[in-house]
Structure formats: structure tokens, C-alpha cells
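pls read this protein.

:::
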Amino acid sequence: MDGVRLAIAGDNADAKHVGEEIIKSVERAVSTMPDWSVDRDNHEGVRVLCGGEHNWFLLRLSLHDPLLVLNVESAEQGGLLTMLKRLRDIISKYASLDCRPMDIRLETTTNA
């Protein structure tokens, strides 16, 4: 499993609001994708099943810091890269979200 921490600019109250909006945005986007689905049996953030039992990610708010925590797992070769790219496309519109750690992960995964 790979993990990425994405900082949200602003104080904790603002970050929580922005983080919740990003999570809702991911849920809305996933609802339009035929090969991805939201796992409703989840109690924090959004867990998305990505076309297979062992391909998923969990995006959630940190309990103490102004950031989103992303955990990603894929059993398929290239699956991690595909999921990260698609998720990056969804969340990139949020200027207050620092996606550089995700970009670094994409770069290292592409070159691996």
C-alpha cells in the first residue's frame, strides 16, 4: 500500500471545510465512472473501488493536521499509476490543496 499526505492551505477549520468539499467532489466524480465505485461500507473519508477487488484508494481528512491522507493499493501492474492519474485529474482544481507529493509519487511510479 502506498500513502501520500496532501497539505491543505489555511487554518484547521478552513482546511477541514476544504477537505470535506474535496472528498465530496471525489464521490461525485466517481459516481459518473463506470469502472469505479464508492465503497459505502466505510466510515472515514471516501474509499473507492477501482475496477477490481484489490484496487482501491482511501482519501480522508487527517485527525490533527490540515491535510488529506491518501492510501492506495493495486494488485495490477500499472494500476497504481492509473488510479493516481485519474484521482489527480479530479482534485487538481483545488488551489488550496498541495498536490506536489502526489506529483512526486506519479513521477517515481512512472519511472519505476
